[in-house]
Structure formats: structure tokens, C-alpha cells
Design brief:
The protein is an alpha+beta fold and 567 residues long. It is 59% helix and 7% strand. It has 4 domains: 6-68; 92-263, no CATH class; 328-483, no CATH class; 494-563.
Length: 567
């Protein structure tokens, strides 16, 4: 019987969001209508809300029916073709790993965006895996692509590799099917509590992880939106104190971040350049979530990154930023004239104290992006891009770091002559003011020059070239110490011996000088102090408490070891 104070709202899910469909006066009729909507294989979900009007004019809302389902779209879905050979999975268990799931996420991106399902759910929920297997020729196409890429360089033949992959997939399917028939707990509380429960059911210790992922997949599979899955996973991760459980959750959050939900997390961004910078902010936990479409979930995710609790998810975001940088999409779509400015914005964000933030990957991605900005293609375009990337670096020290990382990238060997040719400009530089940008503090200038020295030392360049460039940077640093009287200012004779000694040793231990002539000059000044008669007595002079005096001496000797003395 209908009530004048109540009505029943029927809602349908579209793109992961609930949208009002109609209002009905009677509960039974509303539930029947909702169930009828679910017979449409394109309907993501339907639910009924009971709205009750209180006497004070407010409404009380209660969900009385809700059901979601995988959308069975009969239209063709194709794999996303990948061009890089993924690492080989030799055993079925390898396919559950981070790299394999990342490749799965890319290959089946079109399917997953329609079904709102993650690689973890595909691999651990038998019904979802069976649905994928039955979807046209999607799975065989993916296997063919991977097998071809993994054997294109003569490592076996693609037919044999294809059979090996299908054999592993059959074993994975059988394992998921067995788990589908098991009575497992629901994830109603902490993830660790559930994990401990399924660990007791596992036939062997290694099976506990699999069963835990089965339970988590059952929990997530009915959440037909990326935002909903992310919210659930972040809430579990934020409340989790167990390291291993958090690592498992991190893997599934990484799966979700392989989807288009990243756009919702970032919210409106004025350009692709801004979006790339925002992704890196999020990966480092410095993202400002005010404009995010996901609100609290975005803030919670950012906090998890800030606490360094999601290393696998961080890698996924960094990889995504690199892929976007390499893509043909313009960095500033609305005004082609601002493309170079947008590139410089990204360069600034992708540099850290030791050069390109993520080494060779970042250097190669920046170079590839610059080739998109040129009319020239092929090898000539890359040559021009290398020169221009070197030129837009904030200073020559950063240019050295960029060249060193690029040399270690996949395009490095082919363009080694182009890369090494730019070091002639480095060798013509005689002053730290030409090596490092103006406005830096003396400490920052020396630190940046030393970072360039370290990059050169670990680079793949010939030993003779490395020695030559490193010696040149060292000479610039030594000249800077002399001209600016850096050591003399630290060893001011009006100061107490203790203060002079500590300042000098801290300077040597700070990492702002490489091993070489500059460091030797600084250490010689320290040795002059240490060789003074009765150094220890003079050092503790003025410290009345014997215990504090002894502690000051012990701390100083620890500092000496850190600075390279007494080894």
C-alpha cells in the first residue's frame, strides 16, 4: 500500500554513477521495475531508494534494493597494441606479478574500461576470467601479440611461445575455478584479519596471497566504477598496518591507476603539460586535491603516497607520466605557440637534485617529446631533439646529467656520437658561473656541479672521456674554492677551534664536493687543524662537564669518518 509520505526512487548506473530513472509510489512496483532494467545486458546496475518525508520537512533515504552487473556489450572490443616486448613469464605465478599485470592493463584497456574490472579481478575471479575468454578473439589476439614481440629477436619461435602462454593461462583458469568453489570469508573488516583467516585455509603458505586476492576480487567485482574501487582500496590501505597486506593492496591500487580514473583524480588541468606535472605531484604526495573530482579519495590517496606506502602504484603513475610525455598529443592543445613553453614547464618538473627524476626513462621521454615538436623525422629529428633538450636545461650541469642519462637509455647507443659531441661545450666552460645557473647559493652551486660529476662517473661513456670531463669539473670546483675563499670563510681564525673544525668536517661530509683536487684541498685544511699539538684538549676547551666533553669528541670523530677520514 502506498504512503503519502513515501516514494520510491529508481536509479540506474551509468559510467559508474547512479542516475535517477523514475519515481514510483509503491515499493513492490519499484523493485520489479528495477529488476526489469537489469535484464538489459547494457545496464550496469539498478537500485531502489525509499524516500520518507519527516514531519520537519526533511527526508530520510534508505536503500531497499541494489544490484550491479558486468555490461555485456556484444560490440567488438580490440586489444591495445603494444610495441615493447614484455618480460617473459616462465611460470603461471609470474603472471600475477606487477609487470605482467601492468601489461595486461594496457593490452585489455578497451575491455576493462567497459567492464570496470582490474587485472587482479580478471586473474582471481573465475567468472570474470571466463567472460574475458568468451569475448570474441580478445584473449588469442593478446597472446599472439605478446608471443610475437617476445620472439621477434630470434629467441625461439612465436608458435611455441604462444602455446607456453596458453598453457599457463589454462593453469591460472583452473586455479581460479577451484577457488570459485571455496567458501571464503567476506572482507568486512581489516584486510589483515581476512588474510590471517584465508592463510589458515591455504594448502601451502604461497597460496595465502592468492586466496586473499580472491576475497578482495569478490569484494571489488560488484563495484562498477573506478572511483568506487579506488575509494574502497584506499580506505583499506589507510587502515592497514601490516606491511605485506599493504603491499598486496598497493598492487590492486596500481591496477586501478592504470585506468582513466587518473583524469578524475587530477580534475581539470589546463594542458597535458599541467596534467603530467600533477601526476608527478601525486606520485610524490604533494598533489593539491582541491580541484579533484574524487574529493576525499584523492586526498587519501595523496596522503598514502606522501607516506611512501604505495611504491608499485607510484611506479604506475610515473610510467603513465612518461607515456603521456612520449605520446603525439600536444602539451598545450589550445595554443600551438605555447608548446615550447609547456615543454620547458615539464622539464622543470622532471628534474631533481641528481638530474632527470627517473634517470634514463625521463631523459628518453623528454627527447622523444621534443621530436614531436619538429618537422624533421628519423635519426635527424632525434639529433636535433638532443641538442635542443640540452639547451633548455636550466644550466650546463643539468645538461651533463641529461646527456649521461640519455646515453644509458635505449636510444643512447645509436646516438652516442651526437650525445658525446655536446661535451665540447662542457670542456670549454672554465667557471662555475657558466656551469651552474646564477642565483644559487655557493653550497647549491657546488652540490649541482658535484651531481654532474657523479652522473659522469656512472655513465656508460668511454673511461677516457669520463676521466677527462670529471677532471674538468673538479678543476672548476677547486678554482671556485680558491676564488671565493670558501675554506677560509669556514676556518675563520676568530672562531673557537671546535667550531672551525666542525664546520670544515661538515663541509667535507656534506656531499657538495667529489673525490678529487677540490676535496683534497678541503681535507688538507682539516688535517692542519688536527695536527695541532693537544688538539683534543683545545677542542673541548670551554666544556666544563667531562661527560659532555667526551661526547663532543666522540661525535666529532664520527663526523670525521663520514667525511672520509680514518677509513
Amino acid at each position: 500500500m502506498a504512503s503519502e509520505r513515501a516514494n520510491f526512487e529508481i536509479q540506474v548506473m551509468k559510467d559508474g554513477r547512479w542516475i535517477q530513472q523514475s519515481l514510483v509510489a509503491e515499493e513492490a512496483a519499484a523493485v520489479t521495475a528495477a529488476k526489469k532494467l537489469l535484464t538489459d545486458k547494457k545496464c550496469e546496475g539498478a537500485r531502489v531508494l525509499r524516500n520518507w518525508a519527516r514531519g520537519d520537512g526533511t527526508f530520510d533515504e534508505k536503500e531497499i534494493f541494489s544490484q550491479t552487473q558486468a555490461v555485456r556489450d556484444d560490440g567488438p572490443v580490440h586489444i591495445v597494441k603494444i610495441d615493447e616486448a614484455p618480460p617473459k613469464c616462465e611460470a603461471p605465478t609470474d603472471y600475477y606479478g606487477a609487470q605482467s599485470r601492468a601489461v595486461t592493463n594496457r593490452l585489455f584497456r578497451n575491455y576493462m574500461e567497459k567492464a570496470y574490472v582490474t587485472p587482479t579481478e580478471l586473474m582471481h575471479n573465475y567468472k570474470e576470467l571466463k567472460r574475458l575468454q568468451d569475448k570474441d578473439t580478445l584473449l588469442p589476439s593478446a597472446v599472439d601479440r605478446v608471443a610475437m614481440l617476445q620472439t621477434k629477436d630470434g629467441e625461439g619461435d612465436s608458435k611455441t611461445r604462444r602455446e607456453e602462454i596458453f598453457k599457463s593461462l589454462d593453469e591460472m583458469s583452473a586455479k581460479a575455478r577451484r577457488a570459485d568453489g571455496m567458501k571464503l570469508p567476506k572482507l568486512n573488516g581489516a584486510f589483515k584479519d581476512m588474510y590471517d583467516h584465508v592463510a589458515g585455509l591455504a594448502a601451502e603458505p604461497t597460496e595465502a596471497d592468492f586466496l586473499a586476492m580472491v576475497v578482495l576480487s569478490r569484494d571489488l567485482v560488484d563495484v562498477r566504477s573506478w572511483a568506487g574501487k579506488l575509494e574502497r582500496l584506499c580506505a583499506l590501505a589507510a587502515a592497514e598496518g601490516d606491511t605485506h597486506s599493504l603491499a598486496l593492496l598497493d598492487g590492486v591500487i596500481a591496477d586501478v591507476l592504470g585506468s582513466n580514473v587518473v583524469q578524475e583524480i587530477l580534475g581539470f588541468q589546463p594542458s597535458l603539460a599541467a596534467a603530467i606535472c600533477a601526476m608527478l605531484d601525486l606520485a610524490e604526495g604533494t598533489f593539491v586535491s582541491d580541484k579533484s573530482e574524487l574529493g576525499e579519495s584523492a586526498a587519501l590517496l595523496n596522503d598514502l603516497f606522501k607516506q611512501q606506502k604505495l611504491p608499485e602504484s607510484r611506479n604506475i603513475l610515473i610510467d603513465r607520466a612518461h607515456r603521456q610525455l612520449r605520446s603525439p598529443n600536444p602539451l598545450y592543445r589550445n595554443d600551438p605557440g605555447k608548446e615550447r613553453d609547456a615543454f620547458i614547464q615539464v622539464v622543470g618538473r622532471m628534474l631533481g637534485p641528481d638530474g632527470p627524476l627517473f634517470g634514463a626513462d625521463t631523459a628518453e621521454a623528454l627527447t622523444t617529446r621534443y621530436t614531436r615538436m619538429l618537422d624533421e623525422g628519423g635519426a635527424k629529428g632525434v639529433t636535433i631533439a638532443i641538442a635542443n633538450c640540452f639547451n633548455v636545461m636550466p644550466d650546463m650541469a643539468y645538461g651533463i646529467m641529461y646527456l649521461c642519462d640519455l646515453a644509458a637509455s635505449p636510444i643512447g647507443p645509436e646516438h652516442s656520437a651526437d650525445i658525446m659531441g655536446h661535451f665540447q661545450r662542457v670542456l670549454s666552460c672554465v667557471s662555475i658561473l657558466r656551469l651552474c645557473q646564477r642565483g644559487l647559493t655557493p653550497r647549491d652551486k657546488m652540490g649541482r656541479a658535484t651531481a654532474a660529476h657523479r652522473s659522469m662517473q656512472r655513465s656508460p661513456f668511454p673511461a677516457a672521456m669520463k676521466d677527462k670531463v670529471c677532471a674538468h669539473i673538479d678543476a672548476i670546483l677547486e678554482r671556485y674554492l680558491i676564488e671565493e675563499e670558501i675554506i677560509e670563510k669556514l676556518d675563520h681564525h676568530d672562531s673557537h677551534l671546535r667550531d672551525r673544525a666542525v664546520r670544515l668536517v661538515q663541509f667535507c661530509a656534506a656531499g657538495v664536493l667529489p673525490e678529487g683536487k677540490a676535496m683534497t684541498r678541503a681535507r688538507e685544511r682539516i688535517l692542519t687543524l688536527l695536527r695541532q699539538p693537544n688538539f683534543d684538549a683545545h677542542f673541548v676547551d670551554g666544556i666544563a662537564d667531562p661527560a659532555k666533553a667526551q661526547k663532543a669528541l666522540r661525535d666529532f670523530h664520527v663526523l670525521l669518518v663520514r667525511a672520509g677520514f680514518g677509513k
